[in-house]
Amino acid sequence: MQTNTLIKIKELKLIIFQKNKNMKKNKLLFVLTLIFTFNIYGQESDYVKPIDRSVQPKQGKTPTIDLKKPSIFTLKNGLTVIVVENKKLPTFSLRISIDNPPTSEGDKSGLSQLSNALFGEGSKNIPKDEFNEEVDYLGASISMGMGFAYANGLSKHKERIFELLSDAALNPNFTKDELDKEKDKLITGLKSEENSPAAISQRVTGILTYSKDHPYGEFTTENTINKIGVKDLEDNYTNMFRPNNAYMVVSGDVKLEEIKDLVSKHFKSWKSSKKNLKSDIKNPSDVGTTEINFVDMPDAVQSELTVLNITNIQTNSEDHHAALVTNYILGGAFNSYLNMNLREENGWTYGARSSIARNKWTSATFRASTSVRNAVTDSAVVETLKEINKIRDEFVTDEMLASAKAKYLGNFIMSTENKSLLADFAVNIKSLNLPDDFYETFIEKIDAVSKEDVKRIANKYLKPNNLRIIVVGKGVDVADKLENISYEGSLLPVKYFNKVGDPIEKPVFAKEIDASLTVKNIFDKHLNAIGGIEKVNSITSISITAAVTIPGAPFKPNAIIKNKAPNKSSMEMSVPNMGTLMTQKFNGEEGYIEQMGQKMPYEDEQKNEQKEKLGLFEETYLNANDCEIVSLSPVDGKDVYKIKVKDNSFRFYDASTGLLIMTEVITKAMGNEVITITKFSEYKEVDGVKFAFKTEIITGPQTIVIEADQVIVNEEISDDFFN
Questions:
Q1: Fewer C-beta neighbours within 10 Å, C or N terminus of the chain?
Q2: Model pTM?
Q3: What gap in Å lies between CA 626 and CA 644, rounded to an integer?
């Protein structure tokens, strides 16, 4: 199965390479077309004075936008309805948003997730399947949760769509069978998140920032899920889904009077709740001094970095507009300080972003975040702090400020073309206590932001001496470097936490290695573990059939992999009823990949890499003297030897069983280093030799799973098969 994985990785690289080539080609053709078109149609007979690009253009007049007021009315039960008429298309949409404060779920955390999953799945009057079938028949869409409801469709069906949405919203049908199904799904998702640095980072950030008792800090476990019953869903619905703090937005091909009739007919029976949901949650506080909080993920491909402090700023604050521009410059856009440093200058990440959040219920946060490879985690921390201090200490350039305001306003003006957004503006004005002219004056106030304002905002809301720096990554590669970060003349304190935010002592990341142990010892132990050198050497071919799971793909491809000693290989990937998607072959001298009817020969680098393979099992031909034992450290609860094969290639062996459990390969893509982790598990014996029947290929946030159905050894395969 190891060979299978290497082929799979090659296939992925080649597909990406081909895609990029096509993109570049198409882009070139597009550019040439533009140039050609301009030369034909853009010529003028009159002389045009050349532009002096050394002189900055004068700022034009601030643009204005026409924001027509939507129609608003309120039912006796408190439901506020906002109507925006737009006759361009014969469609309409309806959206309900409920302005509830955050509430803690305590030992039944997960209640809101389960409620959202079951709410809207039919009603007490219409079974789930019949409900969904009718919605599909109407060409409509209906979805809802405890804090929202949404529907859209053709305007000629609005009467029935209103009726269906109202029935599902006011007569929910929570059943034990459906609840049990959703519990299983939620628990399965939680288990997969335990191996996700991004998910763990999000969880721990909430806990450390707000505490486990806070709605933004509590987290869901299998135990809390199993405590939730149907009665809990019903009570949650009664308390949370209520009209007295709800807004209904109807937009599209509608008339005000007909909407008044429809809303009154279908929603006047929606009963208000008398329960007080006033939030009594405590505001979080900053750390006393800047510190690093580290969570170890032994098999993490890269580190998740979050830098934050507490802020108190509201949308109706006089600082709001300047804070928008300030954050846009620091980390709110592609050409922001953070992104240009971490991505463009250093190539450490695909993106770095920041935010200055608003929350009317509790204190919010300023935060900067990114994902970087383990080796540069400490450098990313240092550079992030550098950019935060830069925007505090230095005036932004006139060019940068003008560009930021222009792009921000451009996005805002374009968004106002969406007429339904006018209703959102009305909701915001009411729910956030904004001035009536908040959006009419928005452009003017953004345009008025000065570089002095940017510096003032940065100094007010960004607190470099009270930052919580949360890092989730591979301790053996990261921890010691983090402990050596010096900031303003002192080492930053590093505190260690587990995956649920509990403080712990510094883990043992690397254990002492027996001085007499050699790489050859580790290779030999692996060969003995899978069947012994004699059995391994007797294998001349390996044939594998496997199912491939690709996240987000609407199908599950099948793969047929055949390998023949010493280095001939073939893989064919197909989908039932769709045929062959891709074929890849190497005959020992030449190779190619064929997909979508296009055949691409191997380049010299690819051919040489394949020729270096001298057998079906790497441990039989790798020169142990050229390899190095890097560390002995825990991975997934097991002590694992990390072996450096090349500068960009590592192999990991279980110290107890000797089995290969993982490989790590570092490659370059578009100027950035890409780390691919390949995990091997579910070893099974085939004719006296063990193969990993499950392989997981992890590149960035995506994981591709290959599960072997059958492995056949020593099948007669003609050399011509690989041509």
A1: C
A2: 0.78
A3: 9
